[in-house]
Amino acid sequence: MNTLVRHLYSLIFYLITPLLLVRVWLRGRTLPGYRRRIAERFGHWPDMPTGALWVHSVSVGETIAAKPLIDRWLERHPDMPVLVTTMTPTGSDTVKAQFGDSVHHAYLPWDLPHVQRRLLKRLQPRALVIIETELWPNLLHACQVAKVPVLLANGRLSQRSLRGYQRLHRLIGPMVKNLSGVAAQYAPDAERFGQLGIATERIEVTGSIKFDLPLTPELHSQIDTYRQQLSGRPVWVAASTHAGEDEIFLAVHRTIRAKLPDALLILVPRHPDRFDNVADLLDRDCWRYSRRSRTPKPRKNDAVFLGDTLGELLLFYGVAHVSVVGNTFNGGGGHNPIEPAALAKPILIGPSFFNFQSIVDAMLGEHCLVKVSGNEELTQRLLGLLQSQDLRDTYGQRAYLFFQQQQGALRRLESWIEKHLELDSDANPSSPSRDIRPLSTGH
User: Is 2-207 CATH 3.40.50.11720?
Assistant: First the structure.
């Protein structure tokens, strides 16, 4: 029955492939990268080395999270090449920007069984490491047949995703049993992976490698210089916004400007294909604004600065006095609140954060993050923080302390992967354990 279900899934995937091509072509109207390298979607890649550590990082967030792990792996295992696959052009651009020629890169093919079998036969990778949670049944089956270990690293699984997977248990059950190991971010994630049918002995709790974010002296210097150029203006950032949220934040900002006329909003849409749409919104509502892609810094009379570039979110967080995490006011499930915590910034989020449930719950418990219910509360919280240095320091330092206490997942994860590949670890990092609960900070 399980084989029959996978064959039915494969048949459906073959049937919808023309629709996927149309979708890629249509998305290419705003992001031309989608129309390039189409052959890679069918596994026709440039020459790749055999025996590589294959890391699948989906898109921008996962690639940035995986960077410290990949950098350390290249340093510690220079004889083992690293292949990084993504699904999106922005993910591809991030790989090139972060690693240059030190890794090999291609798009992960669509999950067609003959494509995955051919690719595994050609690559013969040492292991496939999937960052966070993107599982493809035919890819995992091909790895099982080729005897390639599949490791789910930095894994997170929300209650909502668990329910979705459970509805497809006849397809998902056999797939997850093909996983050689799961390194879950936190204990609740581990418990939910267990509910999917993954054997307990295959699950480790290692923490989130996003807490091992490298903050360079160059970044801090850039933040200091940029902040000085803003001449002491009160600044807040609305980061990684999605459709429907920009209008909310602009309405809030209009109220804030009535009380603080020189306040500046740095508005950073999550996806590049929305940059022009948000600019049109700003034009339509008669905001005075600049775009980062055209102007290095906000002009003196700008009310809004549109962050329409990639890879600069840490800079914008660092410059702002208060941070608001997007995708939390639209029911979207939220984005990573770790980056503003790493820069000791007060953090505000909306009511939807199921994508980062474990982290947000812990941060709320430690009073280092504020959840607001809607526009009015967001406005009042922002005004309070923008007007009080003491309040900003209190929340910012709590967030930074939390960030510091969660670090160390990178070494645990690295050791866990080496164990599965039966590689020696001369650094002797602490071994992962089912009992590790990195979110327990215990004041």
Answer: yes
